[in-house]
Automatic annotation (TrEMBL):
The keyword S-adenosyl-L-methionine does not apply. Keywords: Membrane, Transmembrane, Transmembrane helix. InterPro entries: DUF6629. Pfam families: DUF6629 (PF20334). This is Integral membrane protein. The chain crosses the membrane at residues 64-85, 92-111, 131-150, 157-175, 181-200. It comes from Streptomyces bobili. Signal peptide: none annotated.
Length: 205
């Protein structure tokens, strides 16, 4: 997620603050799950600071990090988008949410039966777990998270989806090269975009 424990803590605190701003400005209860996403992302980065301090390994912080990153986000994002979406978009988003639930079940099973390990590699952390059918799980994960934003029927969420797709590709490339992890900065920008979405939402009738 970030390039050091300190960076994770600072970014996590900042993203959490944005999350608090999001949830306190929500005008409709259906927007609350998506508005609370930055709180989850902030907690995720704080957990990874603990992984850094532990020197990696397969301890509780590593497991919690993997649970948030994999099965939880695979359900949280499409569920939040479904709740906030206009009625005309909910049918197609229901199918995307179902993909997210199935994907999350496969990811959760993999985490339950196999160990999750973290290895510090310079300015990045590599997480390793044994998943069956990884290509299908990755495809389902991307459809559930990025796809739900692109199919949301909301212009601002569509813009966020495009940013997530492009930004995640750039962050993944930098991480794969073991140059530096920039996921925390990516999460911070996404959180600020969500705050803009919350502010622009109309009051419920």
């Amino acid at each position: 997620m970030c390039w050091s424990a300190t960076a994770d803590l600072v970014a996590g605190a900042g993203v959490t603050a944005v999350g608090l701003a999001c949830v306190t400005r929500v005008r409709g209860v259906r927007d609350l799950p998506l508005a609370a996403l930055p709180l989850l992302l902030g907690a995720h980065q704080i957990v990874e600071a603990m992984v850094w301090d532990a020197g990696g390994g397969s301890g509780p912080a590593t497991v919690v990090w993997a649970v948030i990153a994999l099965p939880l986000l695979a359900v949280w994002v499409p569920a939040g988008v479904w709740c906030a979406a206009p009625p005309r978009a909910r049918r197609r988003l229901g199918a995307v949410l179902a993909v997210g639930v199935v994907t999350a079940a496969g990811l959760a099973y993999g985490l339950a039966v196999g160990p999750v390990t973290a290895e510090i590699r310079g300015h990045t952390i590599g997480y390793v777990t044994d998943l069956s059918h990884p290509v299908l799980l990755i495809a389902g994960y991307l459809l559930a998270t990025v796809g739900s934003l692109l199919l949301s029927g909301d212009r601002r969420l569509l813009t966020l989806g495009v940013f997530v797709a492009v930004g995640a590709l750039v962050c993944w490339a930098l991480w794969r090269l073991e140059f530096v992890s920039t996921w925390c900065a990516f999460a911070a920008v996404c959180s600020v975009l969500l705050l803009g979405w919350v502010r622009a939402r109309p009051a419920p009738r």
